[in-house]
Amino acid sequence: MINLAQKDVQHTLGKFLVTAMGVGMLLGIVLIMIGVYRGMMVDAEVLLGDIKADLWVVQEGTLGPFAEASRIHEDLRDTLRVIDGMETAEALTFQNLQLPKKPKPVRAVAVGYDPFGTINPINPERIIEGHPLGKDHYEIVVTDKTGFKLGDRIHLVRNDYTVVGVTHGTVSSGGDPLVYVSLKDAQDLQFSYTNNRIRSDRARGYKNRDAFMVNTIVGRVKPGYDVNTVAREIRRFKHNSVYTAAEQKTILTKNLVERASKQIGMFTAILVVVSTIIIALIIYTMTLEKMKEISIMKLIGIPNSLVIKMIAQETLLLGFLAFIFGNIFSHLIYSKFPKRVVLEIPDAWTLFIIVIIASILASLVGIRKVIKADPAAAIGG
Questions:
Q1: CB-CB contact of 307 with 298 (8 Å)
Q2: Which of 298, 292, 294, 307 minimizes the C-alpha distance to 380?
Q3: What is the pLDDT of residue 194?
Q4: Which of 281, 302, 304 is CA-nearest to residue 367?
Q5: Measured CA distances, 107 to 98, 178, 261, 316 (Å)
Q6: Rg of the chain in Å (alpha carbons)
Q7: Which one, of 53, 110, 58, 106, lies nearest residue 245 by Cα?
Q8: Among 128, 149, 153, which Cα is nearest to 139's?
Q9: I want to staple 55 with a disulfide (CB 3.0 to 4.6 A). Which of 126, 219, 325, 364 is the partner?
Q10: How many degrees, rounded to 5, is the angle at CA 145 between CA 142 and CA 147?
Q11: How far is CA 112 from CA 91, 94, 119, 216, in A?
């Protein structure tokens, strides 16, 4: 039996492929939007995974150090180290920086840590050039996304910092590039002021007590001890908020990413609906263009079921080709985005199922027109 859908598509192959490519670009954007969400989830966990801390001690009553501002005393680190069950504890700072670079500054998040401490936030596997910090002052490790190279000098506030290491894939929870400086330098950058400001503060009788503040103390628990039990003891006696690694991950994904994920989800749903409407309009237009031929088919006795099958097959083929083009399009452009885009096979298969269902629904528009076609129109036309 002649495949009517095959013959019809061959007759207008160029138009059919261009149409499928157009719809495919829309579907490709859908995949990119899903990939942006996946990338946000991955970025939110990069720093947590690199630090590998069991506990995060922050300012009481806050969701710090990422979801809210947190400032605690640096010497709390020494107190936490002697708590039963604690293996080690280290102080960390986090701050936004504008790294001077032409033609425009580079926005980054600086992590301050003790280069000689027991918890190093730099994952050695991420270093592609140079080495981690080896001094207390004037060294910086950057990510390759900043564009700085090994040996470059970066002027921050009053001092120059030499790039001693370059990492890859290190980003903050918000997707900004991460750079690393020593804790002492980080405190100087975060809590020190210009000479004019210092003279003004001295004239007012102010002292810079902030120089010994940090944003969080991270700790690791000894093997055999329950993390939640140790966390409760710290909350009870030290009057600070304490979060386990799992709780900190929840804070990042729920408080920082959830709203953005809802927005991305709504935008993705709108694109799917728009794609379905476009496919329906295309099938409807294609059906209108061959109404005379359809009427002739019905006049010579070809059953409605065969004509309906042709419309359904064309719609499904259009959806399938659009899905293929969409995947090709998304894989060609995803690496050009400034923030991480993660394309996963399960997401593509889910979209494929949605496209097939959408194509079936869209075909109903053309099928309805076929059923109502009057065979007499073939004679009168």
A1: yes
A2: 292
A3: 58
A4: 304
A5: 5, 9, 23, 46
A6: 30
A7: 53
A8: 153
A9: 219
A10: 75
A11: 8, 6, 12, 11
DSSP string, 30-57: HHHHHHHHHHHHHHHHHHHHHH--SEEE
Using the structure block, give the residue that is written with the tokens 């503040």.
213
- As a 3-state breakdown, the chain gives helix, strand, coil percent values, each rounded to 5, of 55, 20, 25
CA–CA separation, 116 and 180 (whole Å): 14
| The two three-digit tokens of residue 134, written as one number | 């080896």
pLDDT at 180: 94
* Residue 96 one-letter amino acid: N
- Residue showing tokens 């710090």: 64
Structure tokens at 76: 């709390």
In a 13 Å sphere around the CA of 76, the CA atoms on its Cβ side amount to: 27
Structure tokens at 135: 């001094």
Q: What single-letter amino acid sits at 347?
A: D
- Tell me which residue has tokens 């040996």: 151
Beta bridge partner(s), residue 55: 219, 244
pLDDT at position 4 is: 52
**First-to-last C-alpha distance (Å) of the chain:** 28
Q: Which residues of the chain have pLDDT under 50?
A: 1-2
Q: Which amino acid is at 16?
A: F
Partnered with residue 296 across adjacent β-strands are: none
As a whole number of angstroms, the longest Cα–Cα distance in the chain is 102
pLDDT of residue 142: 93
Structure tokens at 32: 């990119």
* Length of the chain in terms of residues written: 381
Q: What is the pLDDT of residue 1?
A: 37
Closest CA to 86 of 201, 210, 229, 204: 229
Q: What is the pLDDT of residue 199?
A: 65
Q: What is the pLDDT of residues 196-238, one digit of tens each?
A: 656 665 665 555 555 578 899 999 999 989 999 998 888 887 7
User: How much is the pTM?
Assistant: 0.77
